Amino acid sequence: MEHLRSLLEAHQVRIYFFTLISGALLGFAIPGTDELEAAINPALAVMLFATFLQVPLAQIGTALRNVRFLTALLSTNFIVMPAVVLGLVQLLPDDSMLRLAVLFVLLTPCIDYVITFTHLGQGNARLLLAMTPVLLLLQMLLLPVYLSAILGSEVSNLVQAGPFLHAFVWLIFVPLLLAAITQFVARRTRAGAQLLEWLNLLPVPATALVLFIVLISVMPQIGNAQQAALSAAPIYILYAMIAPLAGQLVGKGLRLEPAAARAVSFSASYRNSLVILPLAFAVPGGVPLLPAVILTQTIVELVFLPLYVRWIPKLAQVQSS
């Protein structure tokens, strides 16, 4: 079982690229697949349940007491990187919907496959893993604040409170509660432990499923958003180049040990494109531009994934010398 899990994690970038290509091709070839949009939220809930199963929920309290790491992680993701994003969006055309899409994805730190790549990049993945519920909760609470501050009065016409509340209940609270119950049962019964072993295989397939459903439902309309996606791509590339360095500098400034500093750097670099999609679909008139622009960030990020695994450890060595 552990071998299969390791195999899935080792080949997840290839799996995601294959999923993107096959979902896009099927989306073009099969008409009417946009009805699959209704399946995105349930698929996301399964993905986040699988992610939270990996979280040592009993150790969250211990992780929260690591004040230096917590300060570095939260200040990087919710102060430093939003300031960077504020500067980057000024380079975009004066299009509220386009800027909203870019802000949606760049203001929300990743909480799923970032853990695997933090581990591969010699970062403290376990410490970062324990903080994923905190990261997800804070981004849902702070995203409306950032959007209002950056877009001003325009945001009230584009974003409503309902989807955020819905996302919190069904994408955070319920999956987290189910994961906690599953872990509790697994610690006390053999059947629960065996079930948990099988469920631990879910993260990569569940993420691939979300990618597939999104692509197959959006692709029939993607031509209408092509120009917007191309406009956003250079911004995502700039972000991908700045983020690891910003995270590393904050970690060094707070004197984190190298593995913890690398974890902050990885967290700054990866964004929560899949989890934020339900909010994009809920924006009136947002389809296909918002999901297309958000998925463009996913593609850029997948290109940078193997580079980060090699670059961030070397960056840490340079910073410490």
UniProtKB/TrEMBL annotation:
Protein's membrane topology: Multi-pass membrane protein
Entry's Gene Ontology molecular function annotations: antimonite transmembrane transporter activity; antiporter activity; arsenite transmembrane transporter activity
Subcellular localization(s) per the UniProt record: Cell membrane
Regions that span the bilayer: 15-33, 39-57, 69-91, 97-115, 127-147, 167-186, 198-222, 228-251
Cellular component annotations (GO), alphabetically ordered: plasma membrane
Keywords: Cell membrane, Membrane, Transmembrane, Transmembrane helix, Transport
Pfam family, one: SBF
Primary residence: membrane
Family: Belongs to the arsenical resistance-3 (ACR3) (TC 2.A.59) family.
Name of this protein: Arsenic resistance protein
Organism of this sequence: Advenella kashmirensis W13003
